[in-house]
Structure formats: C-alpha cells, structure tokens
Specification:
By secondary structure, the protein is an alpha/beta fold. The chain contains 13 helices and nine strands. The strands form three sheets. A five-stranded parallel sheet has the order 2-5-8-1-9. It starts with about 20 loop residues before the first helix and ends in a 75-residue tail after the last helix. The N terminus is likely disordered.
Length: about 350
C-alpha cells in the first residue's frame, strides 16, 4: 500500500465563499459558461487566491475533472503521443492520451504559465480556443475533443508573456493586494475557519454553492443554443468603438468581447445582448490587449458618449487658426546642431613623385 492509499483528497474551498475579488469571480464564471472564450489569465502577486479560485471553479461543474499542468511537463505529456507499450507488444500504433484529453469537460489549471516553453503554450491555447486537440507526430495522426476551461496564473514580477501569447487568452483579470484592513481580516477569518473545520464551513455555504452550480448549468445550456441571445447593430458598434479605442491588433478582441457579452447575458438570463453587457466585460477582454497610451476609460462609455469628433478652430474669415502652443504637450522644438571644423588630413601619398625615382616592388 502506498503512503497515500486510503487518504481522501483535500476538500476545495467553496467558490461561493471567495470574497473581495469580484473581477476574478466574474472572469472565471464567464469562461465556465463559454469555454470557447479561450480561458482566463489571472495576473497578481502571491497569496491573492488565484489557485484557490481555479480549484473551486471545477466543483461547480458537476463531475468535472481538475487537471494541473506542471511546469516540468513535456509536449508529449500535454498533447499525447505514441503508446510505446502497445506498439512493442502488439506491433500496432496506438495513441496515448495526454493532459488535454484528461481535462476534457473540466478545468485545466496552469500555475506560472509565463514560465512555460512557448511550444507548450501554443498547443495549450490552440486546444482551449478550438475545443479539439490535433496530434501529428511520432507516426500518430489523431484528433480528440478537448473542451475545457483554461485557467492560467502568473506573477508579472517573474516575467511577462509575449504579446502574441497574451492575445490568445480570452479574458484577463488583474489582482492586487488587499489594502483594506476590514477585508483582510474577513478573508483571514474565513480561511482559518475553513482550515479548522472544512466540512462545517462548506455546509454553511452549501446553498450558495448549489445556486451557483444551477445558474452555471442553465447559462451553459443557453449558450449552447445557436439562435439564443440575439444582438443588434448598436452592440456591434459598441464593441468596435471599444476595441479601436484600446488600439488592439487584429479582430480577436472583437470576437471575444461579443462571446463574453453573450455569456454574461446568459448568466443573467437576459433575452438579448445589450451594450451594458458589452461594457461590463470589456475590461476583462482589453486589459491584456490594450496598447500603452491607449484610452483605458473608453470601456465605461457608449459610442459617442463623452467623446466628440475633433474639430479645427477657425477665425472669422473661415481660415483655420494656428494650433495652440500646448496642442502637442511635451513636444520640444528642434535644436540647431553646430558644425565643428575638422583638422584637415594629410595625404599618405605625395602629391608628385620625382622623375627617375625608383619604385619598390
């Protein structure tokens, strides 16, 4: 008997009891409603409930597996590879499933995703977005369903992800240290109460957990209906305005924002997607895609709300007036660069060679 035989796995902290992280809760629930969003990237310092929330989410999905991708995993460990035992014993080519197959229907958790090799992240994000794992290697040509909720965490102090990989994550939640003394005390008390009596603590939150699980199942069923939750041109205009204000590259942000708004509308049991749904999910979609210096306050505004087209000032005759001195704040006028005189160089070869002078070979 192994040392762990007969021991049950530790109980997860209930998702309903997670407090003071509303952005994290919303991002995880939206990704669970529609796993096709491409997963959630959670940025934040140590000890901000990143892994606790990911493990708690899997419990809301009835019978869903929770699979962890270790940092030392290989590409074969992740996507699957040739089953050498079967190949050697029966002389047949057989596929050995990897972690992507085990995570189907559940949650795949990657801690410190920014420390993984790029090849693993690419395969991981491809499967998370498409719901299918395609393997073409080692004489194997195999495809299988891999529909899971991808949750990746990272501490920016330990390194950043390349922009190309950041863009592949559907949503991003950025956590911060709790600076409010009352909130910190409440979180610590809840954690200590759970550690002292996990069963009793979970029993006190059982009703809230059950309500969350029912709401999540209902929202997932609504999203699965292709003709549910229509949207109009105003929703499209809002999405385009927000993405252009953030100066995002490509159209992935537009598509993800529409899907996230649809997931939120399904969670709220709305009849259609509205611009309010779009603005509520916009920051989760744009946080990791926004270009430096882009408008970060546009997510809270509707198209044309609080903004106006730039106009050119004109004088009484209609001639455009000169721009004010502070129109380009921070710009500095060009400075003239002086030209210094350079001492002339003396030629290495004499200007004239005397006649009859011998030439050396």
């Amino acid at each position: 008997m192994t040392p762990h035989a007969g021991k049950s796995l530790p109980l997860p902290f209930p998702f309903a009891a997670i407090a003071s992280q509303p952005q994290l809760r919303q991002a995880l629930l939206l990704a669970a409603v529609d796993p096709g969003l491409g997963g959630v990237l959670i940025e934040g310092p140590r000890g901000t409930a990143k892994s606790t929330a990911a493990r708690a989410l899997a419990e809301l999905l009835a019978g869903a597996p929770f699979v962890t991708l270790p940092l030392g995993a290989s590409l074969e460990h992740l996507v699957g590879t040739l089953d050498l035992g079967q190949a050697l014993a029966g002389h047949e080519v057989k596929f050995a499933p990897g972690l992507l197959a085990r995570a189907h229907g559940g949650v795949l958790y990657v801690d410190e995703v920014n420390l993984l090799p790029d090849a693993l992240i690419d395969s991981l994000l491809d499967a998370a977005a498409s719901g299918v794992n395609n393997v073409e290697r080692d004489g194997i040509s195999h495809s299988h369903a891999a529909r899971f909720v991808l949750v990746g965490t990272m501490n920016p102090e330990e390194g950043e992800l390349r922009p190309q990989l950041l863009d592949r994550f559907g949503l991003c939640a950025r956590l911060h240290n709790i600076d409010d003394a009352v909130q910190r005390q409440a979180i610590v008390r809840a954690r200590l109460a759970f550690d002292a009596d996990p069963h009793g603590f979970r029993a006190r939150h059982a009703d809230a957990q059950r309500a969350l699980a029912l709401a999540l199942g209902r929202a997932r069923a609504t999203v699965a209906e292709g003709d549910a939750l229509p949207y109009d041109d105003e929703v499209h205009a809002t999405v385009g305005t927000l993405c252009m204000a953030a100066q995002v590259d490509g159209l992935r942000a537009d598509l993800v924002m529409l899907r996230a708004a649809r997931a939120l509308a399904a969670w709220e049991q709305a009849e259609a997607i509205t611009t309010t749904h779009v603005r509520q999910v916009a920051e989760l979609v744009l946080l990791h895609r926004r270009k430096p210096g882009a408008d970060s306050g546009a997510a809270a505004k509707a198209p044309g709300e609080g903004t106006s087209a730039p106009t050119t000032a004109r004088d009484a005759s209609g001639t455009p007036a000169p721009a004010p001195a502070d129109a380009d704040w921070g710009a500095m006028p060009p400075e003239p660069v002086g030209i210094e005189r350079v001492k002339p160089l003396r030629p290495l070869i004499p200007a004239s060679v005397p006649q009859g002078a011998s030439k050396k070979a």
